[in-house]
Amino acid sequence: MKSAVLQTHVTPERHTADNLAEGLRSATESWGILEKVTACVHDNASNVTLANNEYLDWDSSPCYAHTLQLAINDGFKLKPIHHIVAGASRLVSHFHHSTGALSLIQVDQTLPDHRLIQYCRTRWNSIYDMFDRLLEQRWAVAALGCCCGSFGPKCHNSVRR
């Protein structure tokens, strides 16, 4: 599957179906493809659906990836999953504010000098990336937790040489 971006355009006015349709019409006219467009793939917003169906007479096709991401985000709201993801995210956040200790342990343990990856709700696979990196760096993270019994400020002082 291939895709291309023909044009990007700032839309300072309200994102009503009428305004969006006019922007899409203008873009397709400027490229000489207005009569060739039969469908538009987009997020699930009702204003874009209305712009396609009512104003442009294009088939409105919600993006499968976007729809899947919305369903996944709903699954992450389940309490046990949310609890685990939130805990891992707090751990990663801690190391984003103080990378020195992690780097020292990585050198000592001959681990790759990789930063931990923070989960981003709108980015594909970011939870997977976060847990994958935590798994890769688990021994360094565990060593920092063990050396001081917590991940507080005193932990970093005990690791410094």
Structural class estimated from helices and strands? mainly alpha
Number of strands: 2
| Span between termini | 52 Å
- Portion of residues in beta strands equals under 5%
Percent helix range: 55-70%
Provide an overview of this structure.
- With 161 residues, the chain is mainly alpha-helical.
- The protein has helices at residues 17-30, 46-55, 64-76, 79-97, 100-108, 126-136, 138-148, 153-159, and strands at 39-42, 59-62.
- Strands 1-2 form a two-stranded parallel sheet.
- Strand 1, helix 2 (46-55) and strand 2 form a beta-alpha-beta unit.
- Helix 4 (79-97) packs across helix 6.
- The termini are far apart.
Summarize, please.
By secondary structure, the protein is mainly α. 58% of the residues lie in helices and 5% in strands.
Write the layout of secondary structure elements.
Blueprint: H1 17-30, E1 39-42, H2 46-55, E2 59-62, H3 64-76, H4 79-97, H5 100-108, H6 126-136, H7 138-148, H8 153-159
Helix pairs in contact: 1-2, 4-6, 5-7, 5-8, 7-8
Provide tags for this entry:
161 residues, mainly alpha, elongated, disordered C terminus
